[in-house]
Amino acid sequence: MGLETADGDRVFLSTLPVGRGERRLALTVVLVSTAIFLTVVPFARFPFAPVLAFIPMYQSALAINDLITAVLLFGQFAFLRSRALLVLASGYLFTGVMAVSHMLTFPGLFSPTGLLGAGPQSTAWLYMFWHGGFPLFVIAYAWLKDPGRELRTRGRPQVAVLGSVGAMLVTVCAFTILATAGQDSLPAIMRGNQYTPAMITVVSSAWGLSLLALVILWWRRPHAVLDLWLMVAMSSWLFDIALAAVLNAGRFDVGFYAGRIYGLLAASFVLIVLLVENGKLYFALDRQNRSLEQTVRERTEQLLQSEKVATMGSLLAGVAHELNNPLAVVTGHAQLLRGTASDPVVGRRAQKIDEAARRCVRIVRNFLALARRRVPERGEVQLNQVVQEVVELLAYELKTGDVAVSLALAEDLPVLWADGHQLHQVLVNIVANAHQAMRHSGSPRRLTITTGRDRTGQQVRLAIADTGPGIPVEIRAKIFEPFFTTKPPGEGTGLGLSLCRGIVEEHGGTIGVESEPGEGTTFLIRLPVLPLPAVVAAPDAAEAPAPAGPKTILVVDDEPEIAAILVEALERDGYQTETAENGADALRRLERRGYDLVISDTKMPVMDGMELYRKLERHFPELQRRIIFVTGDVLDAEKQRFLESTGVPVLTKPFDLTEVRRVVRRRLVATARSSNGAMTAGAGGGRRADAPQERA
């Protein structure tokens, strides 16, 4: 029975250090007891009416207190295995059983001379054995108690406890037999209800042992809480013996009664402290149980929210994937139409279709970013452009919520090397939170987004301020904690701002909040301006002139509309093209003739793009460096690992035709340089390993 510290160690009265408050309380108890003792001493010999009922009440209470104390100390021993505790518990068991034996032999209580064959000396000698024996147990406890090298029992503690109980019962029986059957061999210390001269010698020995026990307890330091209150108990024990057997005249005088009251107090101090400890323990257990139940509820809710987030992410990503192919068709035809339209009206309409389709593309990509279903990709990012895209994405919600948006974007912001989609996600979360907060506030509702750079030019600042109700001080420090939310159940996961902080810190930046109730909220984000990697600053290979001569490109896609868009765009640039509806069809065509480049979708029936690539490795290894993949499936982790392992260029649907032309040109230039290098190496007799094999 013990409390636990923060590091998980059990704390018992026998190990808990004494505090200043406990010392004061114990000293106060001793001083009050001493004052009462000194007040009673002059009246100790005054006779008082015999009250036989006092004896069984007092002895029963004493026995019950000592036995309960023994049980509690045995319980602590079971945890700590301390021999000192085992000895002290045995001492309290000894006093409890001795109190019962003393009561049964008390003359006139149950029989004229007492039970158990008692004689006129039996009760007095049992009192001496009792009050002289307990100090011996206390001395043994103090001597065995050594925090540096305390002796501990081995084996099962139950065996030690049962052995101690048996030993104490045998000891009490031996003393009882000696005081009853063997009383004639003991000096006479009682004459009726009065003491004989021999009583002084005997009782002085018991009193001296009690004083010695108190001194040794005080001397054996450091003191635990148990030691402190055991010293208080021994002080009352001394007062008990002094009043009941030294300073009084005999039975039933003031000293007789007052001494037994001190004896009851001596038996109660350690018990009271142990019971208080038990009360604290059960209070702590109840508090821990409540805390555990609350934690379980919170963890369960977090798990449910995590499942909801994962499900939402999969749903958004799945919807985005299904939209990729039709969006690729819309954007492709819009760009082709805009490039061929001779009527300005048609051209403007094509441009509007293209702009709307691009907005849909951005929304789809934002879905993927919100679902966190993409690997972080660093690149050149214009912060102002991210802000404008977010405002455009949420424009309808903000407008219908009567929120006026004000942008103060600095024109001299440096380019950031960051993940634009992640920064987009951060801004969407914060703006959406601001919008929701302002829904519950009156007019005016304003959202102000400001960008700028610090004086050193090493950081850019992004501030999002709203005129909402503000954030109370008591929860301001918690808003970035995972799963913390002030929204009603079902309306928020508590993950948004936590994810925002994680993204900003991954970029080496900081995010903070300034808010006062009733005065709105401002989120301030600082991002470092990092030098762009050298590869980014290098000139684009696509700007190099295209290889001379007509080039033939095989387009492999099971979506006829997408294949047709790619064919038309490539033929406008002078390339010759053919199409195949899947990987198997492409292999049959490759067996008939060679191609300078292969543009293949990754997900197709019969044979997909990955299997086609593996076939090329075995049958047409020279084409491994002449393939470009097109994919709209951004969810397949295995496919992502495959694409990364091949190093093949990848066009993501929906694609920009300008980007398609750039990637095709870059790939052709790279393969032409590789072919020229191989040709130079083969001039000394080597063979061109990467020359296309034309077949009739």
Give an overview in words.
58% of the residues lie in helices and 10% in strands. It is an alpha/beta fold and 696 residues long. Strands 6-8-9-11-10 form a 5-stranded mixed beta sheet. It has a 5-stranded parallel beta sheet with strand order 13-12-14-15-16. A two-stranded antiparallel sheet has the order 1-2. Strand 10 (510-515) and strand 11 (521-528) form a beta hairpin. Helix 4 runs antiparallel to helix 7 (225-246), helix 7 (225-246) packs antiparallel against helix 8 and helix 10 (383-393) crosses helix 12 (420-438).
How would you summarize what this structure contains?
This protein is an alpha/beta fold. The protein contains 20 helices and 16 strands. The longest helix is centred in the middle third of the chain and has 87 residues.
Please tag this protein with its features.
disordered C terminus, 58% helix, 5-stranded mixed sheet, 20 helices, 696 residues, alpha/beta
